[in-house]
């Protein structure tokens, strides 16, 4: 999260648990038209939303396949989900831009458009380039964001997950390790010595 000064943590909990804990008035689902894309117990979450009278809003750029009882759908068929959010918050609601919005926005655009390969005339490319120009005018570059996105390979992520899964905390010290099964099935076949050494140092 180092590229976004306004993000403090990623909460890895079930949506149902977060709703019970936070007790929100509004649930906003972004870049997905169905709750099943965000939770394994979508039917239970739908029941909770209805039971607690929580407003359910979807902000998406894909075609909506089925109606899940949304209170509102925001979809202008943009090239990326982040453009839908940017258009809503900055252009329509006039909210002040937060620090780091340019990096987040560029990242969303180049991810959803495949570095602009998937842009088509029916997906409002004018807005895509307008928003991108605003981001670039503030000193950010596509190369800078691409470097952040590709900083760690999939092999690095696999190694990082292995170290976290084996992390233990004791009264005197903390430790982790790379298991034999992981080494045999991943390291020898797919992960380079450089990545393995990186994981071993982290553990």
Structure overview:
This protein is mostly helical and about 200 residues long. The protein is built from nine helices and five strands, in the order αβαββαααααββαα. The protein has helices spanning about 15-20, 40-50, 80-90, 100-110, 125-135, 140-150, 155-165, 180-185, 195-200; strands at about 25-30, 55-60, 70-75, 170, 175. The strands form two sheets. Strands 1-2-3 form a three-stranded parallel β-sheet. A two-stranded antiparallel ribbon has the order 4-5. The longest helix is centred in the middle third of the chain and has 13 residues, at about 125-135. The two termini are about 20 Å apart. The model has no long low-confidence stretch (mean pLDDT about 80).
Give a summary of the structure in a few sentences.
46% of the residues lie in helices and 8% in strands. It contains nine helices and five strands.
Write the layout of secondary structure elements.
Blueprint: H1 15-22, E1 26-30, H2 42-51, E2 55-59, E3 72-74, H3 81-92, H4 101-112, H5 125-137, H6 142-149, H7 154-165, E4 168-169, E5 174-175, H8 180-187, H9 193-202
Parallel strand pairs: 1-2, 2-3
Antiparallel strand pairs: 4-5
Helix pairs in contact: 3-4, 4-5, 4-6, 7-9
Order of helices and strands: HEHEEHHHHHEEHH
For the record, give the distance between the C-alpha atoms at the N and C termini, rounded to a whole number: 21 Å
Strand order of the main beta sheet, please?
1-2-3
Major β-sheet annotation? 3 strands, parallel
In helices, the fraction of residues equals 40-55%
Shape: globular
Radius of gyration from the CA trace?
Answer: 21 Å
Parts with pLDDT < 50 across at least 5 consecutive residues: none
List how many beta strands DSSP finds. 5
Oligomer: single chain
Number of helices: 9
Q: pLDDT average, as an integer? A: 82
Strand percentage, roughly? 5-15%
Structural class comes to: mainly alpha
């Amino acid at each position: 999260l180092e590229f976004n000064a306004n993000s403090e943590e990623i909460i890895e909990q079930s949506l149902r648990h977060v709703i019970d804990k936070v007790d929100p008035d509004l649930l906003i689902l972004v870049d997905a038209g169905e709750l099943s894309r965000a939770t394994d117990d979508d039917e239970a979450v739908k029941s909770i939303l209805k039971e607690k009278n929580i407003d359910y809003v979807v902000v998406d750029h894909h075609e909506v396949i089925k109606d899940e009882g949304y209170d509102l759908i925001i979809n202008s068929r943009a090239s990326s989900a982040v453009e839908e959010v940017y258009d809503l918050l900055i252009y329509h609601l006039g909210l002040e831009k937060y620090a780091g919005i340019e990096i987040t926005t560029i990242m969303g655009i180049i991810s959803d458009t495949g570095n602009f390969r998937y842009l088509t005339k029916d997906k409002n490319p004018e807005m895509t380039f307008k928003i991108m120009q605003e981001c670039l005018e503030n000193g950010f570059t596509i190369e800078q964001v691409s470097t952040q996105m590709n900083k760690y390979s999939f092999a690095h992520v696999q190694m990082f997950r292995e170290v976290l899964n084996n992390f233990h905390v004791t009264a005197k010290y903390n430790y982790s390790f790379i298991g034999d099964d992981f080494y045999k099935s991943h390291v020898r076949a797919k992960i380079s010595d450089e990545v393995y050494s990186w994981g071993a140092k982290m553990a």
